[in-house]
Design a protein that fits this description.
Helix content: 25-40%
Strand content: 15-25%
Shape: globular
Number of helices: 8
Largest sheet: 6 strands, antiparallel
Number of strands: 11
CATH superfamily of the largest domain: Aminoglycoside phosphotransferase (APH), C-terminal lobe
Structural class: alpha+beta
CATH topology of the largest domain: Aminoglycoside 3'-phosphotransferase, Chain: A, domain 2
Length: about 290
């Protein structure tokens, strides 16, 4: 597809998602009152809506079983069980099957969620400027990630995370990671999509829970670090955290780097990160090579 065709396809998807917001609002007895916001991958859209008790967030998402990294169809709903984490809650939801020609047969979900306080730190996901976050904000993030890390989950995709990392390192760096690299690593429950577009201020709150799953310990800080590389002061603050100074943290960082390298070149906010991501990965790979010698 050329640039014009891509632009038309994106616009078609945007218009279709807006219509699904209206369908969800009718089914859930809401009225949409805010501007719709689409995710980068155009899998979902959301907007402020009005309920009988006040403003809420209405989100619609299209099921895509082939999407990588893994997203869970019921992730936002099942995340209601997580305690000790600053996050929105899903109040109710409605599923239906798309019967129009465009994406016919796809399953769609509308979710009514509590409205997160404040504003998004960086709507595009990548940090360019000083976020001016107080120490209390960072303390809140640390508390939430610590609570999340200990949350039990019955859903397991550890082998998928390993395979994704191996495939990414081979593709982007021409290096095959030996099996012993993945010995003695630690796993924790992770949000798994922690970028600045999923964080709110001035009150710390973590959005978008469709991807939460077991991951290499340190993965959430690794993804946030990758999205901070254009603002060195913030990047250094995250890089100095102890979770990223472990073997599991190194693997988490490699996995996060590969994740973003897959989408570099698609005209998004992540494109300028490429040289920084590559430099970070080269450092980690060099340290791993010394470790396995």
């Amino acid at each position: 597809m050329d640039a014009v065709e891509i632009e038309r396809a994106v616009e078609q998807r945007r218009v279709w998602l807006d219509k699904q917001l209206d369908v969800a609002a009718t089914a859930l007895d809401l009225s949409v009152v805010g501007q719709s916001v689409n995710t980068f991958d155009m899998r979902s859209a959301g907007a402020v809506a009005r309920d009988q008790d006040g403003d809420v967030w209405l989100r619609v998402v299209v099921q895509d079983d082939d999407y990588e990294p893994v997203c869970r169809w019921d992730g936002n709903v099942t995340a209601n069980s997580i305690r000790g984490v600053a996050k929105p809650a899903v109040l109710r939801w409605h599923d239906w099957q798309n019967n129009v020609e465009y994406l016919r047969g796809r399953r769609i979900r509308g979710e009514v969620m509590t409205l997160a306080p404040g504003t998004t730190v960086a709507p595009g996901g990548v940090l360019h400027d000083d976020p001016q976050l107080p120490d209390t904000w960072w303390q809140g993030l640390r508390r939430s990630l610590a609570a999340l890390a200990t949350h039990p989950t019955e859903w397991h995709n550890e082998l998928g995370a390993v395979a994704f990392t191996i495939r990414g390192v081979e593709h982007h760096f021409g290096i095959t990671l030996p099996d012993n690299v993945f010995a003695d690593i630690s796993w924790t429950t992770a949000h798994a999509d922690l970028h600045w577009g999923n964080l709110r201020r001035p009150q710390m709150c973590i959005l978008d829970w469709e991807s939460w799953r077991p991951m290499f310990a340190g993965y959430d800080l690794a993804t946030l670090y990758c999205n901070s590389l254009l603002h060195p002061v913030t990047a250094r603050r995250i890089r100095d955290m102890p979770e990223l100074h472990t073997h599991s943290g190194n693997l988490a960082l490699l996995s996060a780097v590969c994740r973003y390298l897959w989408i570099v070149g698609e005209g998004s906010d992540w494109d300028p990160l490429e040289p920084h991501l590559r430099a970070e990965a080269e450092t980690v790979l060099s340290s791993m090579s010394r470790r396995t010698e």
